[in-house]
Design brief:
It contains no helices and eleven strands. By secondary structure, it is mainly β.
C-alpha cells in the first residue's frame, strides 16, 4: 500500500510558476507509472502528465510549460508548472499505478489547489 501526499499548490498570477510535489509514504519504485491529473470546477478530472521508465507525456495544452519528474531516492514526483494560465486553475492530483499479477492498482493523493489569477 502506498499513500501519496501532494503539496505546493497556491495562488499565482498568470505567467507565474509553481512546483507541485507528491511524496509517497513508501517506495515509489513499485509504481510503474506516475502522473498528475487535475479537475477544474464543474469539469471532470483530466490527465495532465505521466512519467514511465523515464519517458514523459503531456496533454497538449501544457506541453512546453509543464515538466514532470521523479526522484526515486526521495520517493517524490514533481510537476514544474511555468507560464501558468487562468485555465490551469484546478485541483491537482498525483497518481501512481502499480502492476501486480496483471492487475492495475491506482493510488491517488488528496489533491492540492492551484489558482491562477488573470
Amino acid at each position: 500500500q502506498v499513500q501519496l501526499l501532494e503539496s505546493g499548490g497556491g495562488l499565482v498570477q498568470a505567467g507565474g510558476s509553481l512546483r507541485l510535489s507528491c511524496a509517497a509514504s513508501g517506495s515509489i519504485d513499485s509504481l510503474v507509472v506516475l502522473g498528475w491529473y487535475r479537475r477544474a470546477p464543474g469539469n471532470q478530472r483530466e490527465w495532465v502528465a505521466t512519467i514511465r521508465s523515464g519517458y514523459t507525456n503531456y496533454r497538449d495544452s501544457v506541453k512546453g510549460r509543464f515538466t514532470i519528474s521523479r526522484d526515486n531516492p526521495k520517493n517524490t514526483v514533481y510537476l514544474q508548472m511555468n507560464s501558468l494560465k487562468p485555465e490551469d486553475t484546478a485541483v491537482y492530483y498525483c497518481n501512481g499505478k502499480q502492476y501486480i499479477d496483471l492487475k492495475v492498482y491506482d493510488y491517488w493523493g488528496q489533491g492540492t489547489q492551484v489558482t491562477v489569477a488573470s
